[in-house]
Amino acid sequence: MTSVWGERVATELALREEEGIAMRIQVRSATVRLVQGDITTQSVDAIVNAANSQLAGGGGVDGAIHRAAGPALMEETKRRYPEGCPTGQAVITESGNLDCRHVIHTVGPIWDGGLEGEPELLKSAYRNSLQLAVDHNCQSVAFPAISAGVYAYPIDLAAEHSLEEVTNFLRECEDIGEVRFVLFSDGAFGAFGRVLERFEEIVKEW
């Protein structure tokens, strides 16, 4: 028997196959979407980079964004933020060769069992990124799953904490029209989908 969740995903995939969008919910005036794909190809106002505290580039999403943006991104980052960026904070640059206006660089926490304030630091990374987007008139923002790669944040918790923070922010702020989570792996996409399905019922009451 096909579940309601399965029917919804099938419908969204059929309607939006080109974009890779498989699920969305409405949070007041904003849309939260899940996309399985490459964050560097997203056409939005701001792409969020899961950076390290030195803002030195690296592997994973960070490396992919810098490669796609070209050397100008690293040059600007080093010039404007020579001291790097603390965990949970965010900084903003132009976008180089990417199809967006800005790159927002945020530093998520390294998972250490959840005993070192990781949940609040992760939420802070999302919150500060969204506030920078608002401050720079960015109405659409694409996020990766911050900290869920080499920083080893458990994907189910990462999905829960990130979507909780983003939906709470959008509940209070109507300056952003779309937040897009761009997820590379099947596991990440499934984890975020399960949480988003549950949150859909919650935000209907807002």
Automatic annotation (TrEMBL):
GO MF term (any one): hydrolase activity
Domain Macro, residue spans: 19-200
EC number per UniProt: 3.5.1.-
CDD domains reported for this sequence: Macro_OAADPr_deacetylase
InterPro entries in UniProt: Macro_dom, Macro_dom-like
Lineage: superkingdom: Bacteria
Keyword tRNA-binding among record annotations: no
Keyword Hydrolase: yes
Top-level EC class: hydrolase
Gene3D superfamilies recorded: Leucine Aminopeptidase, subunit E, domain 1
Keywords: Hydrolase
Any coiled-coil regions, as ranges: none
The protein's name: O-acetyl-ADP-ribose deacetylase
Native source species: Thalassoglobus neptunius
Gene name of the record: ymdB
